[in-house]
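Students often ask why inverse folding is considered easier than folding. One informal answer: many sequences map to the same fold, so there is more than one right answer. In these notes we will look at a single instance of the problem. The structure comes first.
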C-alpha cells in the first residue's frame, strides 16, 4: 500500500480516495502487476450489478501501475550492480513520477566538457556603440606632439631650454614627414623643435617647407617606418557629420574631443582673415584650443579631413580642408625634388608681425594718421627682448613698408629675406608720418 503521508503530500483528494481502495502488488518474477480492489456492499444495489464508483479505483491503480513498470527496467540494472538497492527499489518512489527541478547545478571544475557559448550571442552595447573609441585606437599612432624649446632661455635649476610653445601634427609620410600648422613651428625665437611620438620616442625636428598664407608646414624627423595617417577628402563632407579632433591642447598631449561639422565652407572674409590662400574653412563644434593647432580633424572612417587651425570661441572652431593640404604637400614634394623648398638655415630677428590688409590700413589712417599713400606693409606686434630686432632699435607698433629697398606685402616677404645672408635695412613709419631707417643683423641659427 502507498504511504498515507506521500498521498497527502503529492496526491489530490480524489486520487487519495481512489488509491486507498486498491492495492498494487508487483511480481518481480514475471513482471506483472496485480490490482486488488475492495468494494463496499450496498444493500440498495441489486445482486450482480457492478458499482460504477468502483471503476475509479481500478483506473487510478492501472495508471499508477503503468508508471511503475516504466521505472522498473532502469532500476533493475542498478539492483544488479548493487544488491542493497533491492529493497529500496521494490517499489519506485512516487517522486519519480513528478518533474525534477534543480535549484542549483554544481560549478564545473574544468575537468568536464565545457559547453561553448552560443554562436549568435549579441554584443554588449559598450562594444557595439563605442565607435569613437575604435576610431581613436585606429588613428592615434599617427598623432605627434610638437614642443618648441627656446635655446636662448634656460631653466635656472636644470639648465635645460624652456618650452616656449607647443602644438600638434600628424604623420603623412612613413619616412618621417609630419604635417602641421605654420604658426606652430615658424617665427619662434631660437627655436629647437622636438617631436614626440605615441610610443614615447622624441626626435629633433627640422622645418622642411612652409606656406605662411595657407598656415601649413612640414617637419622632418630622422625616423622610418612610421604609421601614416590616412588622408580623406573634404570635398564630399556634409554638415552634421561626426568628427574627432585630436591634439595636445594646453600641452595636454593625446587629447580627444568630438563634435559635428557645423559648416563645410566658411569663407575667410567672414572670419576677418585677409591675405590667406585658403579659400574656405571647415567649421566644427569640436573643442579646439591652444595646442590643438596642427592636429588632424578625423571622420568616422579614420581619415583626416582637416587640420585644426584656430578657435574663435567655445563651440566655434575652424580647420583647414585636407584637399588644400594635399595640394601643399604635392607642391612641397615637387620643390624638394628640384632642390627648392624652405631653406633650413633661415635666420632669426625676434619679431611677431601682422600683415597689413585694406581694413587695417584704413583704421590706422583714421587713428594715427599715417600717410595716405601707404597701401602695403607689416606692423610689428611684439619684439623678443635681447633679440637682434630689439638690439637694433625696432619697437612694437612700427609699420615696415620696405626692406633693403624691396616693398613688403606680407610676412612671407620677410621670411624670404631671412633665408639670405645680408643684413636687413628696414624702412618704417614711426610717430605718425616720420620715416626711419634701421638696420638689423639677423642671428644665424647655427
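Output (designed amino acids):
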Amino acid at each position: 500500500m502507498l504511504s498515507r503521508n506521500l498521498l497527502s503530500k503529492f496526491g489530490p483528494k480524489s486520487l487519495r480516495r481512489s488509491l486507498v481502495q486498491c492495492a498494487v502488488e508487483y511480481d518481480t518474477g514475471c513482471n506483472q502487476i496485480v490490482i486488488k480492489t475492495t468494494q463496499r456492499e450496498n444493500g440498495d444495489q441489486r445482486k450482480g450489478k457492478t458499482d460504477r464508483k468502483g471503476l475509479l479505483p481500478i483506473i487510478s491503480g492501472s495508471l499508477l501501475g503503468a508508471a511503475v513498470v516504466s521505472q522498473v527496467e532502469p532500476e533493475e540494472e542498478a539492483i544488479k550492480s548493487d544488491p542493497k538497492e533491492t529493497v529500496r527499489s521494490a517499489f519506485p518512489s512516487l517522486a519519480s513520477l513528478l518533474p525534477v527541478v534543480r535549484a542549483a547545478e554544481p560549478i564545473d571544475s574544468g575537468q568536464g566538457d565545457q559547453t561553448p557559448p552560443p554562436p549568435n550571442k549579441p554584443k554588449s552595447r559598450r562594444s557595439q556603440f563605442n565607435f569613437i573609441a575604435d576610431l581613436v585606437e585606429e588613428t592615434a599612432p599617427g598623432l605627434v606632439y610638437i614642443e618648441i624649446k627656446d635655446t636662448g632661455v634656460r631653466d635656472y635649476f636644470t639648465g635645460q631650454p624652456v618650452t616656449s610653445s607647443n602644438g600638434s601634427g600628424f604623420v603623412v609620410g612613413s619616412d618621417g614627414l609630419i604635417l602641421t600648422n605654420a604658426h606652430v613651428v615658424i617665427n619662434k625665437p631660437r627655436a629647437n623643435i622636438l617631436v614626440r611620438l605615441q610610443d614615447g620616442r622624441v626626435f629633433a625636428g627640422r622645418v622642411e617647407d612652409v606656406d605662411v598664407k595657407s598656415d601649413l608646414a612640414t617637419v622632418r624627423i630622422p625616423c622610418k617606418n612610421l604609421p601614416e595617417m590616412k588622408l580623406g577628402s573634404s570635398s564630399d563632407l556634409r554638415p552634421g557629420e561626426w568628427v574627432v579632433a585630436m591634439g595636445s591642447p594646453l600641452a595636454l598631449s593625446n587629447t580627444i574631443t568630438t563634435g559635428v561639422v557645423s559648416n563645410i565652407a566658411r569663407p575667410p572674409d567672414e572670419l576677418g582673415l585677409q591675405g590667406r590662400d585658403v579659400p574656405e574653412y571647415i567649421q566644427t563644434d569640436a573643442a579646439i584650443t591652444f595646442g590643438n593647432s596642427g592636429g588632424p580633424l578625423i571622420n568616422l572612417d579614420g581619415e583626416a579631413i582637416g587640420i585644426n587651425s584656430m578657435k574663435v570661441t567655445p563651440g566655434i572652431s575652424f580647420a583647414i580642408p585636407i584637399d588644400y593640404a594635399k595640394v601643399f604637400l604635392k607642391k612641397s614634394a615637387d620643390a624638394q625634388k628640384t632642390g627648392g623648398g624652405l631653406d633650413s638655415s633661415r635666420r632669426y630677428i625676434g619679431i611677431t608681425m601682422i600683415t597689413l590688409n585694406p581694413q587695417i590700413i584704413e583704421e590706422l589712417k583714421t587713428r594715427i594718421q599715417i600717410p595716405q599713400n601707404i597701401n602695403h606693409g607689416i606692423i610689428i606686434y611684439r619684439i623678443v627682448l635681447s633679440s637682434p630686432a630689439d638690439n637694433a632699435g625696432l619697437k612694437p607698433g612700427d609699420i615696415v613698408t620696405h626692406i633693403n629697398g624691396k616693398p613688403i606685402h606680407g610676412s612671407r616677404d620677410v621670411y624670404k629675406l631671412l633665408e639670405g645672408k645680408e643684413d636687413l635695412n628696414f624702412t618704417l613709419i614711426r610717430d605718425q608720418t616720420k620715416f626711419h631707417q634701421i638696420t638689423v643683423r639677423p642671428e644665424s641659427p647655427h
